[in-house]
Amino acid sequence: MMPKLAIVREPGDSYSKCISCHPLRHTIDVGKARRQHAEYCRVLADLGLELIKVPRDDENPDSCFVEDNAVIHRGKALICRMAKDSRRGEIGAVESILKGMVKVRRASAPATMEGGDVVHFSDRLLSGVTQRTNSHGISQMREWLDVKVDTVEDPSIVHLKSYVTYLGRDFVISMKRYSKHPTLKGFTVLVVPEDEGYAADTLTIGDTVLMARGRPKSQALVKDAGFDVVSLDVSEIEKCEGALTCLSLIL
Fold first, then answer.
1. Does residue 159 carry a catalytic annotation?
2. Cα 156 to Cα 128: distance, rounded to the nearest angstrom
3. Which of 63, 89, 104, 230 has the fewest beta carbons under 10 Å from its own?
């Protein structure tokens, strides 16, 4: 089903203080990040999505990564309980918007849950059990959203979608470490080259796949699979260990 809406939020004044171990974090250019975010929004609009813009949050550095705030499935949303205390101030404005659109419930302690761990398939969800999402969070998500949830357990990673995303038409793009995981059985798995791992985080709208610029081999794999590709410069997003899926909640 073609999505209709995208919830987005531009980077705030404190963006350069984001949670990140990226070696170039100290070079973050907030103005450039906002321009890249604006181009991302323009592409989503050109692909037919209505944009719902959450007011900018200058106090919470990671607030532009709205995907982590909620998991949405078939008319319901689980408002996430972030693993990092410093991110829990982000959710209020996003929750307020979602309350006017879908049924909402908040995840509660001891659950931790972040949307960046959840891959959406047509009939189920796939969630990482990671540094940011625990088994309690997955149980609450499964119960509230009333959906089958398979898991990939790897406490060494931050978010699963940095490694695996769904392209549509039973195609998945993945880094090699998860390409043969049993939860992906039945899919055609496109494996990104080791030197282009960042390309595994993609965002598909219809038959168009948004991909990070500068990963030509991975883009060729996706084009050869029959998808259109839009290449976006997200250098300043990458420095905050964010990626294309992180910047929107798609409905």
1. yes
2. 11
3. 89
pLDDT, one tens digit per residue, over 31-59 is: 999 999 999 999 999 999 999 999 999 99
Domain 5-159+234-250 is in which class?
A: alpha beta
Q: What is the dihedral of CA 3, 217, 195, 189, to 10 degrees?
A: 50
Q: Does residue 116 contact residue 245 with C-beta atoms inside 8 Å?
A: yes
* Among 41, 64, 73, 159, the one annotated catalytic: 159
Low-confidence ranges of the chain (pLDDT < 50): none
Q: Tell me the domain boundaries of the chain.
A: 5-159+234-250
pLDDT tens, 156-201?
A: 999 999 999 999 999 999 999 999 999 999 999 999 999 999 999 9
CB 114 within 8 A of CB 65: no
